[in-house]
Design a protein that fits this description.
Layout: H1 7-13, H2 19-30, H3 49-52, E1 60-62, E2 68-70, H4 72-77, E3 79-84, H5 90-98, E4 102-108, H6 111-127, E5 135-136, E6 156-160, H7 163-167, E7 175-181, H8 199-208, E8 209-218, H9 222-238, E9 256-257, H10 259-266
Parallel strand pairs: 3-4, 3-7, 4-6, 7-8
Antiparallel strand pairs: 1-2, 5-9
Helix pairs in contact: 2-6
Amino acid sequence: RMRKKPLWWRRQAGRRGTKGQRATLLRMEGLGYVLEKKKYKPGVEGYSLVDLLAKSPGKVAASDNGESRCKDVAVSEKEYWLEIGFGRGENILTNAQIHQDRCYIGADVHQPGACTVLGRMEDAIKSGKYWDGATMFAREAKHITESTNHQPYDNVRIYCGDGIKFLHLIPSQSLSGIVLPFPDPFPNGGHEKFRFIQPDTLQSLERVLKPCGTFYLATDATEFFEWCCGIFATQGRERGWQEVAPCPDRTEWLPAISYYEQKGFDEGRST
């Protein structure tokens, strides 16, 4: 059962982008970089892997009757990663450049932020050069090069909506990795029920991940981290979740220092 968030959260999440940002959203939607919004209903089919790559440049071919169709081989061989709450897009855009063989899907409920990311993608597509505004966690650890084989961000799709609801629309066992960077810790007493990590959320994550898939969590909120560890230690262990130790090199999944992480550093918190 989906819990209704506090009123202040819903007001923030419901903010619309500026007129210019909404125009960018429409243009990128027309190009196929924005996933069509679907309302979740129990028993109703959500997205297919073909949907997630629809209109992808280089992944769409003409069928015998002239209609566009996705190449099944390209779709089935693609490795899908989901980032929930991508903020200003520092990590999803950097990951998409580093790992051009993966398809990255970003879900964020905040329209102004999503439009900012789409604007960076649009500029990169026009110029043919990836966005380079991210601050790397360890620039020397991963050498980033421009690709001559891919259009910038051909492997990125954006979903403007609630990430938890989006999980219900994703095909089962289709994701290789899920990244949850710095979710709202809801630190106030009585708000624990609004936190992303809940026993029922683990079931949704388990359903969409491949058998050897990995869930990555980054946070600088100690109380929230302990809350998550407690749920995974009890509910998760019963369902077969296993901790990956030592923690995977963050240059493989969280290569950039986001605005929100830097803010935490400035205020004395650590990731």
